[in-house]
Please model this.
Amino acid sequence: MERQWWKEAVVYQIYPRSFQDSNGDGIGDLAGISSRLDYLKHLGVDVLWISPFFKSPNDDNGYDISDYREIMTEFGTMAEFDELVAGIHARGMKLVMDLVVNHSSDEHAWFQASRQSRTNPWADYYIWKDPRPEGGPPNDWQSIFSGSAWEYVPERGQYYLHLFSPKQPDLNWDNPAVRREIHEMMKFWLDKGVDGFRMDVINLISKSFAADPEGEDLYFQGPRLHEYLQEMNRNVLAGRNLLTVGECPGASPEDAIDFTAPERGELTMIFTFEHMDLDSGPGGKWDFREFAMPALRENLSRWQLSLHERGWNSLYLNNHDQPRMVSRFGDDRRYPKESAKLLAHVVHFLEGTPYIYQGEELGMTNLNIEGLDDLRDLESINAWHDLVEARSLFTPEHMMEAIRRKGRDNARTPMQWDDSPQAGFTTGQPWIRVNPNYQWINAAQQLSDPDSVLQYYRRILSLRRELPVMVYGRFEPLFPDHPSLFAWERILGEERLIVVNNFSAEPTPVDLSGIARQGEFELFLANYSDFRLSPDGRYELRPYEGFVLYNEAHEREDQDVSGR
Ligand code: GLC
Ligand code: CA
Model:
């Protein structure tokens, strides 16, 4: 097993709009991030992934870029970006930027030119198709943000493709000039000091158009995808020792190996989605189902076993597109703290690179969206208009409940720094409502509380630095058929970790006597501070109780609480 820094690292995702406002306009910004770097260093993360901070009309909060080499006006200036990079590097951390190149904004100069005619120099920078012979869009593909994926432009008498909003036209990767522009832009940011890329929906860049216009949506993982990634690797990434993570909705474990097997020269890891879809019914994201742990366990275990020594995965339970993990997979009402810590075991004790989404380390929860006025995200707003108003597929009650559970705004409420007005995020009016629970869930409180979720994260992160088995150990499931236990071992040579988690509010007995011989294991970590090792290996786990055992009395220096 080859050691790599990006396997050992822990990544922290910042959604800049909601992290820290520095000038009172209610919008987070780069100077705000700079002012919080000491907090992030103290937490112990190695890498910051910052969601897009490039020039954008903000139809999709920066995932619609109108100039790839300029900073978003609301977020600050290039000088502030340079300061931020310097501040990150001075603290020994790294920066990963979001590379959003499946599409640009329709306000990008390329698209403004492209739409004018079929013959201008940018005419083929986007995906243009003629109407069907009988009229209407070239095929029946649906946008991920509702409605047809095609928009008609009279100047060309053609439709352009937008897998997301009409303000996010898809770039034409089959045009070598487009690929060259993207490679040059990547080098521009590498020269400015970025240490890696998170590649937005990168498995959508090559499209395959079915002959049958009424055929299914075949836009995932088209025929030239791997060719384009290998070319990008050769031209830009190779030899720089970067972290590259591809966002790959719909990818299977076999696909993941194709993207990340080192000998293929593509990416270092991907974001997979199967585990994010377990609470969706056949009608998709808004056709919600209750979360059931065994499905999550089956899924994550299968990925663990498939990828070991063949590829590499990212580990995450939430991000800016997903609801908060404690609200979704834990119990945010009765056991918020216990379940937040328990879920941290799942992210940090499996094999892969762990990602923390801002506020997760505090156990931040969903917003409890009350009505349409609370919504900011175009995905939820469009879905409401389409599914409730236009097509009556869902009742307003169902849809509001679906948005309350799954809407992306849940993750985008301001970071909860302290219990002052607006949670210390801004001195002005925040662009999105602050979660009222900031009064008891906030960083200032947790920094001074030894039993807080935040302190638990700090401890986990410092353990990862000391213990190769946490990074490189092989995964082996335990009690794979139990209704509420999610338990496993990690094994590296002689070193073993045993991780046991009770995913329920009911007391749950577990017998480890056949697995961990008496005296052989010591307590490594537990989310109830009064947990004690049992001499006979039998435990009665309390609600959302979890613990980790380690088989070697390894020499650990006294815990350094300074966060280094
Ligand atoms: C990715 C981003 C999401 C964005 C979409 C379109 O899924 O994570 O926030 O809306 O791509 O760029
Ligand atoms: Ca601001």
Q: What stands out?
A: The chain is about 30% helix and 15% strand. Confidence is low (pLDDT under 50) at residues 553-564.
